[in-house]
Amino acid sequence: MKYHFSIALLLFSLFIFSQTDQKIYDIIEAVSAERIEKDIQTLVNFGTRNTFSDTISETRGIGAARRWIKSEFESISKNCNNCLNVFYQKDFVTKEGNKRVPHDAWIVNVVAIQKGIKYPNRYIIMSGDIDSRGSDTMEFTKDAPGANDNASGMAGTIEAARVLSQYKFENSIIYVGLSGEEQGLFGGGGLAKYAKEQNWDIIGILNNDMIGNIKGVDGVIDNRTFRIFSEPVPANETERQRSLRRFYGGEVDGISRQLARYVHKRTKVYMPEMNPMMIYRLDRFGRGGHHRPFNDLGFAGIRIMEAHENYTQQHQDIREEDGIKYGDVIEHVNFDYAKKLTAVNAINLACLAWAPPAPKTVAIGGIVEPSAKLKWNKVEGAVGYKIYWRDTTSPTWDNSRYVENTTEFTLNGIVIDNSLFGVAAVGDNGHESVVKFPNKILR
Ligand SMILES: [Zn+2]
């Protein structure tokens, strides 16, 4: 008995310290470039998916597109004993008061929820966009295939649902097609508000917007690099939080940045051939995406996208001028790359959905002492905790120490002034939460 117990303990420890889970490799393998290609083609075939386009036709416009997405989620659900709750979430926008709204319309998102077994009210979200646009966002009848922007993100989200619906998770996963992106981030705004009203405990949103282009307008061809955008600190932080930061630090350690680091690290561990690039800003210079309305309400959210954009192939009517072919057509989408970025999403959804929550409170102390002290609240469902620290100039959590049976620890010889610290909770399956940056001072 004693012998068996030690073997079990050894295996468990190996699992914790090897930090990999075979199921995650299986998930990467299961993502299909062919299915993503087929779904992008289907979305392109609706002609235009402009938010203000036809809603009656069965073959053209945003209405046909969203009905198809809903039916696709429903058939995925049929294949997993109805594991998805599929519904429309909608808000009405009016022409009056909105410069980029050509006429009053419903902004309709398609939501599919896979309920978690242990923490059903905790949600990790993956989003893509249903809608597309041409050169003029107010023009809603012309063709706007939006193959890369953003049928790629939408197809990736549907594919992630297909793969992950074959597993059971502790936390809930939401797969969502958002609408109204191009005219003012309406769909994301509507769902973020809905999440607040429903009291959903949001772990974060992985917003996918353009995940299929590998040939940049600058001529660079790269099918391994991708970008993870995250804002530095929450947009809705208080004046007091802002002033405390001057003395205790945390300028680059907000909740969205921790989510970005989480995705960066899991990609490095499980898909080492990829080159994830953390970008220390909310989004591209002066431009927007559907994670922002979530950030506005204080939810963690990041944008995942290709590294090299091609501006002649986004927000352009299909045409030829001076020998240049304009338009977001399917010929420019690299399905294998879209598959890789979909796998990046799927493995991070899975890791987060299998992990316990992070500690809510992490206190830190050690002023004029040779060692840093940390103390955190006990997390139900955690078997241990990982204390992380890094140089103040490092973008990644480079050092860690695993501890069990305690909710406090002193890092001997690590001076508080010279590093940044955080704590993650670890489950019995080896999966860990996002790192929690200290939010309290120990005196
Ligand atoms: Zn766009």
UniProtKB/TrEMBL annotation:
Residues 109-315 form the Peptidase M28 domain. It is found in: Secreted. GO terms for molecular function: metalloexopeptidase activity. It holds the Pfam family Peptidase_M28. InterPro entries: FN3_dom, FN3_sf, Ig-like_fold, M28_fam, Peptidase_M28. GO terms for cellular component: extracellular region. This is M28 family peptidase. It comes from Winogradskyella endarachnes. The lineage of its organism: Bacteria, Pseudomonadati, Bacteroidota, Flavobacteriia, Flavobacteriales.
